[in-house]
Automatic annotation (TrEMBL):
Signal peptide extent: 1-18
Keywords noted in UniProt: Signal
Protein name: Blue (type 1) copper domain-containing protein
InterPro entries (UniProt xref): Cupredoxin, Ser-rich/MCO-related
Alphabetical list of Gene3D superfamilies matching this protein: Cupredoxins - blue copper proteins (2.60.40.420)
Entry keyword annotation includes Repeat: no
Length: 235
């Protein structure tokens, strides 16, 4: 229900503004639009906790995009302000399609499209977890990630190649909001901006937050970079 209104009211103007900004015509307007919300980026991992940046440095990537996380690890995704992204479980066979419940298999986790929140899953076994961003065209531009992907066969690289092969033919997905639960890893809570309390308790974390202006302004550039990276990946 969010998607159409969101795209029309927010995303398209934002992308349009970013494009103008890239041409240097509306720099001051874009600068004044900076949102003064403290959104932490992923802190360093600690025992039992692993952290992933969503839309790292304004690019259409998860960073790190594939991790090895033992059972019981809490993996937390840090969403930036600006352009909305999602962490949506999919399958190796269908990288850009949400993993719906089927037969005796439960549905995947899904943050839904979000900005400025954190979303955590608890790893429940050592099987691979595949996920993608359901924002329009992001998955087909390679915005995918994995947890416990094997080193051979169905690797993270093969998964990302499959997403890139879909490219612009990637089906547009609906966003029905957050879904808890999941397969091989479960979310027990919906996304929320809960990191500020823990972040203030951490004395050593340096501020490396990127402003929303930067994220927005680099969105179009990121699209191009990701597209080029996709082409390179095939050569
Ligand atoms: C993660 O799940 C395991 C069971 O699979 C549970 O024992 C553990 O307490 C959970 N961790 C957190 C932080 O909820
Ligand atoms: C779940 O489904 C698979 C195949 O779809 C089947 O092999 C398996 O026996 C089923 N397990 C249960 C507990 O029903
Ligand atoms: C990332 O995926 C590759 C396979 O594509 C694997 O060999 C590597 O170990 C993975 N990295 C991590 C940190 O799990
Ligand atoms: Cu995205």
């Amino acid at each position: 229900m969010l998607t159409a209104a969101f795209l029309t009211a927010f995303l398209f103007p934002v992308l349009a503004a970013a494009q103008y900004d890239n041409y240097g015509t509306t720099t001051s307007a874009a600068t004044s639009a900076t949102v003064a919300v403290a959104v932490p980026s992923a802190p360093a991992n600690t025992a039992g906790f692993m952290n992933v940046d969503v839309g790292f440095q304004g690019k259409l990537v998860f960073n790190p995009a594939n991790i090895s996380a033992p059972v019981g690890t809490i993996v937390t995704f840090y969403f930036p302000s600006g352009l909305a992204h999602s962490v949506s479980q999919s399958s190796f066979a269908n990288p850009c399609t949400y993993l719906a419940a089927s037969g005796n298999t439960s549905a995947g986790f899904d943050s839904g499209l979000q900005t400025a929140v954190q979303f955590s899953i608890n790893i429940t076994d050592n099987q691979p977890i595949w996920y993608h961003c359901k924002q329009v065209k992001h998955c087909g531009l390679g915005m995918v990630g994995s947890i416990n992907a094997p080193a051979t066969g169905n690797t993270f690289a093969a998964f990302q190649s499959a997403a890139l092969a879909l490219g612009s033919s990637e089906a547009t997905e609906t966003d029905s909001g957050p879904v808890t639960g999941g397969v091989h890893g479960v979310a027990t809570a919906k996304p929320a901006n809960t990191a500020s309390t823990t972040a203030s308790a951490s004395s050593s974390s340096s501020s490396k937050s990127s402003g929303s202006t930067k994220v927005v302004a680099s969105a179009c550039l990121a699209l191009s970079v990701a597209a080029v990276a996709g082409l390179l990946a095939y050569n």
